[in-house]
Specification:
The chain has about 160 residues and is α+β, with helices and mostly antiparallel strands. It is about 15% helix and about 35% strand. It has a single domain, classed as Jelly Rolls (Sandwich), CATH 2.60.120.10.
């Protein structure tokens, strides 16, 4: 059996970013893994500024997660169990800040800082809808009117934008 080689090019990132810009959530995944049952998930995560990924952790089952900046800029925010920011890290391949591996049971979020930003994401599978993410009870849900305000608060607290 011959495996199909998959290439990640500027054109491929452009197509995925264009889909993110058109989507109401302002982000779009492209999965390289053939099914949700795969033991290792690999995907592009194209994200536009203003998209909201509710802080979450991967627990029961415990899973790590890796983000590599292919294009654009992101801030990864790490929280304690009460919602206090314990660390943040800017991903920007132009500055030699390529990626982050987030251990299991660690609350985190990823915020896009530039249009056209695309990350390569790796996480353990299989995908189990009932246990994929443990959402932070102290953060607004996706679609909540307070989500945009919460993103802005995180950007101010991390110093990415000035109040």
């Amino acid at each position: 059996m011959q495996t199909k080689v998959k290439y990640i090019t500027d054109e491929f990132l452009d197509v995925t970013s264009a889909k993110a810009k058109q989507h109401e959530r302002r982000r779009m995944n492209y999965n390289f893994h053939p099914s949700h049952e795969d033991a290792l998930h690999r995907l592009l995560n194209a994200m536009e500024p203003g998209t909201y990924i509710r802080p979450h952790k991967h627990q029961d089952p415990d899973r790590f997660e890796v983000f590599l900046a292919l294009r654009g800029r992101f801030v990864v925010v790490i929280f304690d169990d009460e919602g206090n920011i314990t660390h943040h890290f800017i991903l920007d391949s132009r500055e030699g800040r390529y990626g982050v591996e987030i251990p299991e049971r660690t609350y985190h979020t990823l915020i896009s800082l530039e249009p056209g930003s695309v990350a390569y994401e790796v996480k353990q599978g299989p995908y189990l809808p009932s246990a994929a993410k443990n959402f932070a009870p102290w953060a607004p849900a996706e679609g909540d009117a307070r989500a945009e305000e919460y993103i802005n608060l995180l950007l101010q607290k991390t110093g990415v934008v000035k109040p």
